Structures are given as C-alpha cells and as structure tokens.
Amino acid sequence: MAFEHYKTFITTKLGVSGHVHRLMAGSMAGMTAVICTYPLDVVRVRLAFQVKGEHTYSGIIHAFKTIYAKPIVYKVYYLGVSFFTFGTLKSVGLSYAPALLGRPSSDNPNVLVLKTHVNLLCGGVAGAIAQTISYPFDVTRRRMQLGAVLPEFEKCLTMRETMKYVYGHHGIRKGLYRGLSLNYIRCIPSQAVAFTTYELMKQFFHLN
C-alpha cells in the first residue's frame, strides 16, 4: 500500500519516473514498514534468545516496556532493492518480450502483465538480489538487538562499530554473510509468492 502511494506521489508531485521512482518508492515503503514493525522484531529476537532460568522478560508486554532500540537500515535496503529489481525485471520483460512473458490484465485488457510463472521467477530473483545486498545489515541488526545479553567485549553501540567488529573477528563469509544460504531458502519463495500475490490482487481490485 505504501509503495503504491509513494510511487504515485513521486510521479505526480516530483515528476520522477522510470527506474528511479521505483527505487525511491520502494525505499520509502521500507522506511514506513520498519517504523511500524521494528519494535515487534526486537521483542521477537529478545524473547527467542532467552535461556531457561534466565528470563529477563516475562512476556511481550513486559519486553515492550523494558526495551528501547534504535531502528537501522536493513529493511530500507531490502525492500527498496526488492521493489526496484522486480519493477525493472517486469518493465524490461514486457518491453522486449511481451508475447513470450506477458498477457493482458484481467481487469484491463489494454495493460500487459507478467504471466504467473514469470511473476514467480522475477519475484524470486528480486528477493535473492535484495537479500544478497542487504544481508550484512541484517546480521548487524540482529547483533545489535541482542546487545543486552552479549558479553561486554562483544557489545557495539553503533551500526558501524558492529559491522567492523563482525568483519574483523569473523570476516565476510563466516561473519557478514554467515547463514545467507539458509536465508535464500526462506526469502526466494517468500518474495516470489509475495510479488505474484501483489500483482494478482492489483488485478482483483481493478487497480490496473
């Protein structure tokens, strides 16, 4: 919802179009999402990390009352790159191979949309690319969220300090990108289904 509103605003009010407006709208949608959901993410990580017999928080409400965390930029990069990549793949595909990749929209025959299997493919590719670019920020985010339960020598107060610590002690593959392959298993089908559903719902609600 936020993406569509921002895209319309950027196009009509700022006069920006093409690939740039998709990247801007996706990033702004990511900022909106992280502002709304970040506290829930912090609480989830803190509660999941608790060890039996050492419960710092008695429940979700108690965790909300006792935690203060600063939001960081993982979801801004992830959603921004994800929407930008999907929009670009869709635009290029329909421009250069409309007969092969596209079909008339069910709500507006004058508008071409991607075929369902192509939507799934483009969504999966967008998720993989976005995850690859933004993953170091995700590692940093989770480590900062666990700052209260880490040993003193491992605590870092800023994103830059945290990334520097992880890179210095564990390197790139075993530090900043540790667990990326497992995340691909989660994010690729997730984004494929999400973007396909997004496109189908636009047709269902006659938004084309």
UniProtKB/TrEMBL annotation:
InterPro entries per record: GDC-like, MCP, MCP_dom_sf, MCP_transmembrane
Transmembrane spans: 76-97, 117-137
A Pfam match: Mito_carr
Keyword Cell membrane annotated: no
UniProt repeat feature Solcar, residue ranges: 17-105, 114-204
Coiled-coil annotated spans: none
Record membrane topology: Multi-pass membrane protein
Localization in the cell: Mitochondrion inner membrane
PANTHER family assigned to the protein according to its UniProt record, in alphabetical order: SOLUTE CARRIER FAMILY 25 (PTHR24089)
Name of the protein in question: Graves disease carrier protein
UniProt source species: Neotoma lepida (Desert woodrat)
